[in-house]
Structures are given as C-alpha cells and as structure tokens.
From TrEMBL, chains A, B:
Protein name: D-alanine--D-alanine ligase
UniProt pathway: Cell wall biogenesis; peptidoglycan biosynthesis
EC number assigned by the record: 6.3.2.4
Gene Ontology CC: cytoplasm
Function: Cell wall formation.
Domain ATP-grasp residues, every copy: 133-332
Subcellular location: Cytoplasm
Sections of the chain in a coiled coil: none
A GO MF label: ATP binding
InterPro entries: ATP-grasp, ATP_grasp_subdomain_1, D-Ala_lig_Van_CS, D_ala_D_ala, Dala_Dala_lig_C, Dala_Dala_lig_N, PreATP-grasp_dom_sf
Length: 345, 345
C-alpha cells in the first residue's frame, strides 16, 4: 500500500511527531512509504526513507532536501524541466498545533487530498480541552468535572485539592502539574499559562483506574483495538510520554470484565460517530465508581497507537479504503443569469 | 488603505459572494483594493477592478485572468521572468462552505496572511447550527429551543406546529421551510436533506420581533453597529436575501428602548468575546417575552453588513489595525539532542 506520512509542524509537539514518524517507518515495513516533513516555517520537504532519523531534523539537514508545494490532489516537487507529484493517501501525523487543531485537515480538504486524520470539526472539538467538555456535555458523554481559568480574569478555584492543572490546548503532558496544596498553586499556574491563556482545572483522582482504547470506522462499523491499562506513576511527564511515542511492541490486553470492556467501547463509539470519521483515534478513560469518564481524546495518537492493534497494517489499509468523501457544492449561476436577463443584459 | 477582497468559493452561496464583493467595491471607494476570486475548483484568480461584474464569472471570463498561488505572506502571480505578490490584508468574503467553515481561515493562518474574518474555531461554532447550539449552551446564551434530525435515523418531531426546518450548515435561507402542519412536512424535510444530512427543527414564532446587530473588536473593545429591525414577510427567501446581499444604503436605527438596546449588545458581546476576534460579524436576535434569543451568527455577513455602520470604511480600518496575531510555537530539538547525547551520538 502507498502512504505518505506527513509529520513535523509548528508545534510544541514537533519532536514527538518526528519520533512518531520514525516509529511508523519500522511498523509499516512493506508499505510503499513517502515522508513529508513540515518545518516550523511551514515549508514542506520530501524526506528520503534513509534520512528518517532524528538527527536529520535536529541538525537542519532537511533544509537541503527537495521542497514541496501543495497542488490539487497532492504535493508537487519541481524538477528542472518537469515536476514530480506525491499523490498517495496522506497520514496526518503532526501532533499538536497544525496537525490536531484543524489547520492541516483544512489544507488537505481544500486541495482534495485524501487523508487519514481528524477533519476540521473533529479537530476543534478534540484539540482544545474546553471544547471537548462542550462536546461531552452536548452528547451526554461523562467526563471529569472541571473549571476553566483564563489569564484575563482573576478567579478562585472551588475544586478541593489535590487538583490537576492543564493548558487548554496541549497534549503530551506539556505544562501539566498536579497541585497537592495551595503552596504549589502559583508555580503550577505560571507553568500552564506559559503555553496557553486558558487553563483547565480538574480534581486529581489518586489511583484512578485508567484504560485506553483506540479505533476507527471502516465499512460502516467501528474497529476497536484491544483495551490497555497504561502503567503510570502519578502521570506521565513529557519525557516519559515522549518515549511513549516511540512504542512499537504490542501491549497486553487489560484484565477487565466483559461488562467494563463493552462499556468502554460504547463510550468510544458515542465519541467517534458522526465526528471522527476518517481518523484513527485513541480515547483515554477513567473508571470511577464503576462509571466510565472520558479523560482525553487523541485524534492523532503517538505512533498511531500501533501497539494496541493486533493487525496494525491491516487496520490502516481498511481505514484507507473507507475515508470520507467531502461532497463539494456545485456552483451554478442561475441567479446571476436570471437577474441579468431581467435587466435585459 | 490596501485590502484584498477574497470571494467566490465552492459553496451554494458562491453567487452571493460575488454580489457581496461587487457591493464592497462600491462601498470601499477610495481604498486600494485587490480582488481575488476562488472558483469552484479552488483555483485562485486575480480579478481586475474593471472586471468586477457578475457576468465575468457567469460567463467564465475569469478563467483567462492570472492564476494565483498561496505562498508565505500572500498570493503570488507568476510572470514570465518574475512574480508579483499580493500581500495586503485579506478580507475573507467567501460566504458558506470554504469561507465560513474554517477552511479559508486555516489556509490564511497557515500561510501567515493577515485577514479579516472568523478564525477556525469561530467558524466551526457558527457554520454548523448544531455547534452554534452547543456553543450557546456552554456559554449560557439563550437561543430558540430546537431538535436535530439526521437522514441516518428515523425520529419524531415533538415541537408543535408551526415549525421551521433548516439544513444544519447553510446560510442565506437555502433549503429552509416553514411547516404549518403535517401535510407539508415531508416536502420540507426532503428539501432540507438535499443540502445537508443534518437538519435543525425550531418552533416558528409568528410575528416575532427580530433585531440585527453587527460589530467587531478593535483596541480591546467591541464597536457596535446600529441595531436594525429587518423588514420581512415571514422570512426572507433565497432570492430576497440574495438581493439583500447587495444592500449598500444605510438603514435606520430600530426604534427600541435603551434597555433593549443594551440587552442586545450584551448578548452580542457574550457571543463575540474570546471567539470571533478578527471578524466583523452580524448577530440576528429574536425578542420573545422581553428575552433576547440568538437566532443566527453570521461570521461573514452579506456585503459585510456595511449598511449598519455609520462609518463603514473607518470601521474596517480600525479592525484591520487590531487583527489577532497567532502565536506560533517555537520548535526546538532539546529532547532529541538529550537523547542523542545519552546514546553517545
């Protein structure tokens, strides 16, 4: 199968995206892969498979590689007297800003490029944690209770300690702190405000049971991964999560009852349907008092959560064959014609 | 002032956008204007001011005009041995799909082009009426009660007749019907489903008081237009609204109490703040039992609601000088460097 891995982006998770892409190169061994790197200035480069190493990017060697531009149906590389087109299906693997905020989705939609990844609406509802809460409320999906803070206004937090403080729009635990008492609050707020002017506060639930499920829609039904119980110590900090993005060995299925598994899948389906079509997403859930609560939606999970799928390659192929078509409005000039003829023009 | 009017788009409101652009050409007399047309195939053309007539587009004469491509900071026009750049501020005047659904916003953001218009999030929350309802609920903004229907599932409507049926994602009254009793229902549903698989049903409130207010944020405060009481017969159909898009003579202020005016402005502000910065929007309100209800947000109103502003040119200048900057994440390679040095590479 032909597939173009698009990675990088002007994002705090830029490095994570590089690690993800390198991991997928190994996991998708046998696929006919292209690699396109989006640098922090939004220039696209075609990267040869042999150069898919972290050092290529950290040493800026990528700047010597062929520049690509977006054209209808794909990316184009200018040659002396011709051009080469990359027009296979794109896997959007840009984590964080650009990739998960709807920008890349809109670009690919506009240029009629088929892609795996969340569409614009789905991106908006998963990238900013405020909007994920709105989405949950509207759809009746249970999640952890929360309060919002903004750098614009002074407001007290009414959730009792311990609490967890997160920038509204970042993943990978960047800027996140657990605050056990008031003495730690100011530092945690400052840290989070460095990344976002909006902050979300939630109760920190000690020893909460946590389960992750990934999945995607193909041929009208959701294909679920195994359910994983992630190991953790309090919560994964950036460095640990970073390592997590290069995971490639399959994990063991969580030892849970059929009832809980079906509850988790039901929640996943409620989140996915009529929103995330075209994407392979991972949902991270908490279970509190036998109730499933959504913690986070990862619309472009690290290394595509390959380690949760028994047949990862087969899964991507299935999804690729079932991508949504955007129905584009047909334009006509009936009204202009009718007005012109009324005017006798 | 230099300004680039971007219009057209692959949208059911394509023609309306052309009319809007022609109207603005007149209203912005004295500005240094460029016109860029996006055709239904997503090709950009540079249109000379003298060709800004409906016939240029309905007769496909635009296809002979210079093609533009997006580059960092603007649009580029290839010449024989050089290229010409259009890099003034863009006014996004594409109504409906492309312009109001977040696509154009994402494109302009990605290429670091400054623009007047809703950003991606604001587009998602105003383009699809379902998400506008979620937004209202989350922000405590009152709106008309509603039910959603989808072509996927059979569901009864519990709102008593008369009702109004609208496709979830179109403006300009396209596909909208008033249904007075059950005998008219099927036809109205079929009409709406032609345009969208999701439909919104609301009670039709006869002789409801309707008021429109436009405005924008500049220098940290909202600048409001006058409040208009639109004339109407039941509701504006497409043809009437179409004519409405070419309005250019200033309207009279609605004869309302100071109290109601301040209520309307307060609602506008609740909608606008922390969402629509960068855009000039028009909100259409109903007043029922002395309560202000949001009917619709127009994030790119027809001909920019010029007729509601006493000093329209001055308003656009103020807004242009106060456009939001998107803070782009600075990329560094600290983790890759630290991992490589730990590995001894």
């Amino acid at each position: 199968m032909k597939l173009t891995i698009l990675f990088g982006g002007a994002s705090f998770e830029h490095e994570i995206s590089i690690v993800s892409a390198i991991t997928l190169k190994e996991k998708l061994n046998g696929f006919d892969l292209n690699f396109i790197f989006c640098d922090q200035d939004h220039t696209f480069y075609s990267i040869d498979a042999k150069d898919m190493k972290a050092k290529t990017f950290s040493s800026a060697k990528h700047k010597k590689m062929p520049v690509l531009t977006l054209i209808k149906g794909g990316f184009s590389q200018k040659k002396m007297f011709s051009s080469k087109e990359h027009n296979s299906i794109v896997l959007n693997l840009i984590h964080g800003a650009d990739g998960e905020d709807g920008t890349i989705a809109a670009l690919l939609d506009f240029y009629s490029i088929k892609y795996i990844g969340p569409r614009v609406n789905a991106s908006v509802f998963s990238y900013d944690k405020r909007y994920t809460k709105w989405f949950c409320e509207a759809r009746g999906i249970k999640s952890v209770k929360y309060e919002m803070l903004s750098s614009d206004e002074q407001k007290d937090i009414s959730i009792p300690y311990p609490i967890i403080i997160k920038p509204s729009r970042l993943g990978s635990s960047i800027g996140v702190s657990i605050v056990k008492d008031e003495s730690q609050l100011d530092y945690a707020l400052d840290t989070a405000y460095e990344f976002d002017k909006n902050i979300i506060v939630e109760p920190f639930i000690e020893n909460v049971k946590e389960y992750n499920v990934a999945g995607f829609m193909a041929n009208g039904e959701i294909h679920y991964s195994i359910v994983e119980e992630p190991q953790k110590n309090e919560f994964l900090d950036f460095e640990k999560k970073y390592m997590d993005f290069s995971r490639s060995s399959q994990v063991l299925k969580a030892d849970i009852s059929d009832e809980l598994e079906s509850k988790l899948k039901k929640s996943f389906s409620k989140i996915y349907k009529n929103m995330f079509e075209g994407a392979l997403i991972r949902c991270d859930f908490f279970v509190v008092n036998n109730e499933v609560l959504l913690n986070e939606i990862n619309p472009i999970p690290g290394s595509m959560a390959n380690y949760l799928f028994e047949d990862f390659k087969g899964s991507l192929e299935k999804l690729s064959n079932s991508l949504p078509h955007s129905k584009r409005a047909k334009v006509n000039y009936d009204y202009i014609h009718s007005i012109n003829s009324a005017k006798g023009k």
